Amino acid sequence: MALETSPAAPAPVRQIANAIAGWVDRLGAVWVEGQVTQVTRRTGMATVFMTLRDAVADISVTVTCARSLYDSLDAPLVEGASIVVHAKPSYYPTRGTISLQAREIRMVGLGELLARLERRRQLLAAEGLFERHLKRPLPFLPTRVGLVTAPNSAAERDVLENARRRWPAVRFEVAYAAMQGTRSCAEVMEALARLDRHPEVDVIVVARGGGSVEDLLPFSDEALVRAVAAARTPVVSAIGHEPDQPLLDLVADVRASTPTDAAKLVVPDVTDELRGVAAARERLRASVAARITREQAGLDALRSRPALADPRSLVDARVEEVASLRDRARRTLGHRLDRAADDIGHQRARARALSPLATLQRGYAVLRDADGHVLTSVAGVAGGSTVSVRVADGRVHATTTGVEADPVDTTGGNDG
User: Which residues, 6 or more positions from 364, have their beta carbon under 8 angstroms from its beta carbon?
Assistant: First the structure.
């Protein structure tokens, strides 16, 4: 029933909002089909929020459901899944929005397919097949590039032409396989195994153009995913276009958004490398030239010093010093020799003064008997005895005629 309103008697906002809520509420529970474009699941909240978009028109509506209903689904909801929802429309006057309160959710068509793929992805991820630490780096310049693709396909042309344009000397080992259909998975696995056994193949590219989710199903096959994970050679996945992401993209060592991008990843650009080599050569030359200039400047600085400019100046400056030291050494040595000579003369004179020969030279003599004993007293000599007299320059042999003793000196003196 329409509200009676006029410019003079307008209805307040709350009345209109309550009327809209009543009209929406009378719509009752409905079945709605659409595509999930967003899922918001906040931690600690009992409600899950989704956005359901019409498959044809650009129209969307918010859907809420209990967490228990969301968790009870056989496969988790993913963006892009098509679903049928049994929901009760509700209008929230405070926010002025309409949403559907879901009571039942069913997967249909492509949505069910995406759900199965998501479940498979979760299982393989739980095994660790997609871990980052398992990814192997691509070689800088592979000896030979393996390519798995369909014969005479646009993907093959893109990879070959772009790779050869970047590095003309690149060599390919192409293994053809069906890239869609029931035979695709087995043929791709066989081609992958053949290239993985090739001794010269350093990297393998699996390339195919874009396609629908159904066309790309073989590249999400569990057997193919495990074969890529077990391959010894790094694998580049170039399946579909940027929005496409089969499970092969997750297990491959490198994902290329397109076959053209794969060609850029597997070989370097010869122009960039030559430019880099030229730049490195110039840096090396500049470094060597700077080093030579620096060392030459150091040599010039050394040679400019007076000692190296005229090395004889050092010798000339020391000639007089050497001569002075030599003269001083000679004088010192002469003085020491003179003192030593004087000391020797003194010692010789003292030795001579103490020598018995010197005593003899002063007129003394040494008297010995016939047996050679020195006679110091007349008591041991008798008249007629043979004696030997030692004087300064020889000996005198004589015979005594008599012996006379000196009188005893009671005063202690000596008359000489």
Answer: none
